[in-house]
Design a protein that fits this description.
- The chain is of the alpha/beta class.
- Helix 3 packs parallel to helix 4 and helix 4 runs parallel beside helix 5.
- The chain is 46% helix and 15% strand.
- The protein contains 8 helices and 7 strands, in the order βαβαβαβαβαβαααβ.
- Strands 3-2-1-4-5-6-7 form a 7-stranded parallel β-sheet, with helices on both faces.
- The chain starts with 6 loop residues before the first strand and ends in a 7-residue tail after the last strand.
């Protein structure tokens, strides 16, 4: 098992990409701390992992709130004594409220930035002290093609938050490289997950998004899990500051 003995915090673990990756981490031997605001589904995930013989706990966490993030890492250290990997996955996409700049409300802007950017920053802030103390670790952020190119002109807050997270990836990679803390971003394409559910339930839109992908299909959590395991493991020991595409070729054309 490629992650045997590692302690991994996964935010946004209750559903979608976070749930798939958390389960894969557990199968690879990691001790998983599943964090989410969705108490029912997060606890159900942990119960499922435990029933399969894996070591996991659930911590109800709003990543946009510093006391909650501090409590998340306190619980992790209390239970396991270390943090080897942070998989910072929690995010929101408000398709019906996000908009071009002149139409965008401050409420939507602040909420999206609070979860997507502030949440990523706070989780890194509280994971790093343990990694410094133990001599290294891996931080994996989730980026987006919307943070690289103007492919979602109506999603101003979301696109900007993801661009900022990818900037955070690079500056942290440079800042902590000599401390053996690697910082990378996975960049998913259009994924068939609950976060995109209210977009993709429109069959015409679903087909439009599918057709735009060179591989001819939408992505799933399983598509991204292997890449996440690679970046969490020592197999990626010389990889930092990278953006790893998992988009079916979407950004190649």
């Amino acid at each position: 098992m490629r992650l045997s003995g590692k302690v991994i915090v996964v935010t946004g673990a209750a559903a979608g990409l976070g749930r798939s990756v958390a389960a894969r981490f557990a199968r690879e031997g990691a001790k998983v701390v599943a964090a989410d605001t969705n108490q029912a589904d997060g606890a159900a995930l942990v119960d499922e992992l435990k029933s399969l013989g894996h070591d996991a706990i659930f911590v109800n966490t709003d990543v946009s709130q510093e006391p909650a993030v501090e409590a998340l890492f306190a619980a992790t250290l209390s239970r396991y004594g270390r943090v080897d990997v942070l998989y910072s996955n929690a995010a929101v996409l408000l398709y019906d409220h996000d908009a071009p700049v002149h139409e965008l409300s401050m409420e939507t802007w602040d909420y999206v930035m609070g979860v997507n950017l502030r949440g990523a920053f706070l989780c890194a802030k509280y994971a790093i002290p343990s990694m410094l103390k133990q001599g290294g670790g891996s931080i994996i952020f989730l980026g987006s093609p919307t943070g690289m190119v103007g492919c979602a002109p109506k999603l101003t807050a979301y696109s900007t938050s993801k661009a900022a997270v990818m900037g955070l990836t690079r500056v942290m990679a440079a800042a902590y490289a000599r401390n053996a803390i690697r910082v990378n971003s996975i960049v998913p394409g259009t994924m068939d997950t609950p976060m995109n559910g209210y977009i993709l339930r429109d069959q015409a839109l679903r087909e439009q998004y599918r057709e735009a992908v060179p591989m001819g299909r939408l992505g799933t959590g399983e598509d991204i899990a292997g890449l996440a395991v690679f970046l969490a493991s020592e197999e990626s020991a010389y990889c930092t500051g990278g953006f790893y595409m998992c988009d079916g070729g979407l950004t190649a054309v």
